[in-house]
Amino acid sequence: xxxxxxxxxxxxxxxxxxxxxxxxxxxxxxxxxxxxxxxxxxxxxxxxxxxxxxxxxxxxxxxxxxxxxxxxxxxxxxxxxxxxxxxxxxxxxxxxxxxxxxxxxxxxxxxxxxxxxxxxxxxxxxxxxxxxxxxxxxxxxxxxxxxxxxxxxxxxxxxxxxxxxxxxxxxxxxxxxxxxxxxxxxxxxxxxxxxxxxxxxxxxxxxxxxxxxxxxxxxxxxxxxxxxxxxxxxxxxxxxxxxxxxxxxxxxxxxxxxxxxxxxxxxxxxxxxxxxxxxxxxxxxxxxxxxxxxxxxxxxxxxxxxxxxxxxxxxxxxxxxxxxxxxxxxxxxxxxxxxxxxxxxxxxxxxxxxxxxxxxxxxxxxxxxxxxxxxxxxxxxxxxxxxxxxxxxxxxxxxxxxxxxxxxxxxxxxxxxxxxxxxxxxxxxxxxxxxxxxxxxxxxxxxxxxxxxxxxxxxxxxxxxxxxxxxxxxxxxxxxxxxxxxxxxxxxxxxxxxxxxxxxxxxxxxxxxxxxxxxxxxxxxxxxxxxxxxxxxxxxxxxxxxxxxxxxxxxxxxxxxxxxxxxxxxxxxxxxxxxxxxxxxxxxxxxxxxxxxxxxxxxxxxxxxxxxxxxxxxxxx
Length: 621
Known about the structure:
Blueprint: H1 4-31, H2 39-42, H3 57-63, E1 66-70, H4 78-88, E2 92-96, E3 112-115, H5 125-134, E4 138-141, H6 147-151, H7 154-160, E5 162-171, E6 174-177, E7 187-189, E8 205-211, E9 216-222, H8 225-231, H9 242-245, E10 248-255, E11 258-263, H10 274-283, E12 287-292, E13 295-301, H11 311-318, H12 322-340, E14 345-349, H13 363-375, E15 379-383, H14 392-406, E16 414-416, H15 422-428, E17 439-442, E18 451-454, E19 458-462, E20 465-466, H16 472-485, E21 487-493, H17 495-498, H18 507-522, E22 530-531, H19 533-545, E23 547-553, E24 556-562, E25 568-574, E26 578-583, E27 585-591, E28 594-599, E29 603-609
Parallel strand pairs: 1-2, 1-3, 3-4, 4-11, 13-14, 13-21, 13-22, 14-15, 15-16, 16-17, 17-19, 20-21
Antiparallel strand pairs: 5-8, 6-7, 6-9, 9-10, 10-11, 12-25, 18-19, 23-24, 24-29, 25-28, 26-29, 27-28
């Protein structure tokens, strides 16, 4: 028999257990304001498309940020990349379609002349370009002419610092990016026994240029010593370093009073080249300070799908319906990786991809996920992915009707373009239901602007990498864009889980790729801020609007920011100098010689500590 005292104790313990497990859940549900978008107020900006700063010739005289481009800035390749880079770095760009069009003004010389060699007259222009270096104008050859043209033009070879052409064409084993050029450090893009051949997507075939001893290598081909010796044996009197003998890809040569940079390949033919240009600018001076977006996005596409579509196939593959797969398998995996990397997710809802079937999206399921999103500080947006046979306007009608019924007070701030055309997206954004939309995410396009105002003042953000893929080319793209913008957007599409094309689309396999790739991509850039798309939109607006002036006296860099709103982010890169203290800003070390500076006031001072080893950026021959 249980005594009264024991009965009372047992009852008290049961009440405590009930309190411990039930009350926190009740409180959590009461304070979970899932029906409101928390980023509507906290991630707002007053800047619009009219606020974008477009550098002028007058600005160039004040800031000395001024470059000349020989080529077509509207070509969608090299020219488009140069134009985009100039806008982001707040540089005035003067474009000429021939060398003859540009006449240097000795009172206002550019930092550099960038050249698309397709627009050169090799018989006349090389001498003119060489003459620019006598004025101290640096040259950047964004690409090189055919090796046959290089071989018969000694003036061009001397200007570029090409000592010899070992072979007209060689296929290397891999590519090495040298330390200190792009943010992220040294990288060797070469396959090992654990990798799939598809990971190597860089062009390994190239002319083998041997650069002179006075040149500096930034990226070169990798090959076995035996292969090198087969074509070129270093003599006893050859004092050139081994790297100088390897096939040169990106390098710089000192010529007269300036530097001449060369790119052997198409690395500056897409927007992924902007970080390479920024790194070249650093080599021209003792430090570089430039604005960045400072936003790292993890976007989960087409999740959750709120209708149990494709049920027969999913039951055959998983023995579970879609609702259970997402709840018990996919969501825990997404959260685990996000928490491991301290990421914020933006989840692009797909109420239903095809409304022409008899299924309907479930309101209870949406409420369930909206609560989970709130707990993880995630943002919910809307996906434009749809079955092409269905009119997109009809799908959006149904999506909006469903959301208005279940979460009527939730403001959708972000849309994913998916397979919608630009015209379809423009029409969609005219809807009164999308009046509060601020930003649209589009898939990566090598020729498009990475961030810009589009669709009547809406910010267009570009995806940068696929969370399921990690090729060498994608890795180099990520490093370059991070160097120039401090921006990334990794996209993880959940649609293949719901509509698998093969066994490779199982979440078990996809999640392994997603977890490994996400950690690898961001490991070297953890100092940049993790954001949702709404927060990233705010930072992009501020980035595009600001202008700045800087000056250095002794160890103090003074930064003056115009069009300043609450805060602005910059990257300071040096050749060994360290930040000792700041005024009007905070800073974090990204890596040796690179700092993330967050300005909290429009007037900033950075006090540098002198490097123990002074950097000389001119090398004597």
